[in-house]
Structure formats: C-alpha cells, structure tokens
Amino acid sequence: MAERGRGAVVNVGTMVAEFGAAGMALYGSSKAALNLLTKAWAAEYGPRGVRVNSVNPGPTRTEGTAAMGEQLDQLAAMAPAGRPASAQEIASAVVYLASDAASFIHGAVLPVDGGRTAA
Q: 105 in a domain, yes or no?
C-alpha cells in the first residue's frame, strides 16, 4: 500500500484494551498494544498515503460468542446501549474506516461497544 501511496488498514481490537477485567490480562494487554501499534503505524505510514485505524468492539453476538449464553447479555447490560452488538454493526464501522468517506481519519481507535468504555 505504501508503495502505491494509497490504502487503509483497519485493525480490530476490543473494549477490554481500555479497562482492567479479571481474567483478561493477556488478551486485554495484547489488544492495548494493538491500539498503540495502530497509532504508531498511522504516524509512520500516513505520510506515505496509508491510513491506519482500529475498531474496538464490545460484546457482539456471533457464532463464537453463542456459548457465552446469558453471560454475553449480562456483559452487554453494563453499557448504555444495554445489548450486544450484531456482527453487522461492527462490520459497518470497519467498512466506514476503510472507505474514502474516512479519508481524513488517521490513528483513530473507534469504540464500537455500545458506550461501555464511555460510561
């Protein structure tokens, strides 16, 4: 992308990168590192025409989270939205950041978590 002078990278993190959660130290810290990598790459590759951003999803209803059952709903209830996201809601944020409509967005970490990290 940098050789062509155009492109967009959208990393996918997690809301758990923004606050401590019991039992999530390794996962959360690795995703917090991804947030910093997003910003560092934005600084490094932005001048070469490549935008780098990240989406940090909250609880999301997927095949992978189906086994969580009611725990997913309880986790989501802690956010202002009060419900889990659909995979489409997360995908829409990724598509937006990858699109030309986000052409002036560099190094952003977008929480798509129903407001959990805000409240």
A: yes
Collapse the DSSP code of 13 into the 3-class scheme (helix H, G, I; strand E, B; otherwise coil) and give the result.
coil
pLDDT tens series, the chain, 119 aa: 999 999 999 999 999 999 988 999 999 999 999 999 999 999 999 999 999 999 999 999 999 999 999 999 999 999 999 999 999 999 999 999 999 999 999 999 999 999 999 98
Which pair of structure tokens corresponds to residue 21? 């959660």
Instruction: Name the residue with tokens 């986000």.
Output: 102
Burial of 95 (0-12, 13-18, 19+ CB in 10 A): middle
- Which residues are catalytically annotated? 27
What is the domain range of residue 20?
Answer: 7-60+71-112
Residue 95 covered by a domain: yes
- CATH code of 15's domain: 3.40.50.720
Query: How many structural domains is the chain composed of?
Result: 1
pTM, to two decimals: 0.93
Distance from C-alpha of 115 to C-alpha of 117, rounded to nearest angstrom:
6
